[in-house]
Amino acid sequence: QVQLVESGGGLVQAGGSLRLSCAGSGRTFISYGMGWFRQAPGKEREFVAAISRSNSSTYYAESVKGRFTISRDNAKNTVYLQMNSLKPEDTAVYYCAARLFTSAQAMAAMTPSGMHYWGKGTLVTVSS
Q1: Whole-angstrom Cα distance, residue 38 to residue 46?
Q2: 84 near 24, Cβ under 8 Å?
Q3: Radius of gyration of the chain measured on its C-alpha atoms
Q4: H/E element holding 52?
Q5: CB of 97 closer than 8 Å to CB of 36
Q6: How do beta strands 10-13 and 18-24 pair?
């Protein structure tokens, strides 16, 4: 069992930056591929970024490539999402997700229903 708690969301102007954190519980955190998804009002949840268990590979949605960076610190059981050059269309609830023994590329190809664990989300609002 893994519990995930996101933090770091808030209100930011377009062009600004935010850093989201996702703290995981349990000693098996390193066994999980980790990802970030987001859901805007009236839209389906979509993939944003994923990172492999060992930090060796990352994968991004085209819409955030070059602006967002995912990273993880397995010693702290935490995964991060650094978001730069934010746009109003980035406004959404951002969710952290975990899937056991899964690569970043595989997580990117899955639907959200394929994730094993979810956090409750953190709201990011980007004003124009």
Answers
A1: 5
A2: no
A3: 13
A4: none
A5: yes
A6: unpaired
What would the two tokens of residue 49 be? 């970024």
Q: Which of 72, 78, 87 is nearest to 40 (CA)?
A: 87
Quick one: tokens of 72? 């993880």
Q: Are the CB atoms for 76 and 21 separated by under 8 Å?
A: no
Closest CA to 90 of 56, 51, 48: 48
| Single-letter amino acid code for the residue at 15 | G
pLDDT in tens, 9-21: 999 999 999 999 9
77-86: b or e for each residue (b if 16 or more CB lie within 10 Å)?
Answer: bbbbbebeeb
CA distance 8 to 75: 20
3-state secondary structure of 93: strand
Distance (Å) of CA 49 to CA 37, 75, 108, 127:
7, 21, 7, 22
Identity at 27, one-letter amino acid code: R
What does the alpha-carbon distance between residue 22 and residue 122 come to, in Å, rounded to a whole number?
A: 10
81-119 pLDDT, tens digit per residue, is 999 999 999 999 999 999 999 999 999 999 999 999 999
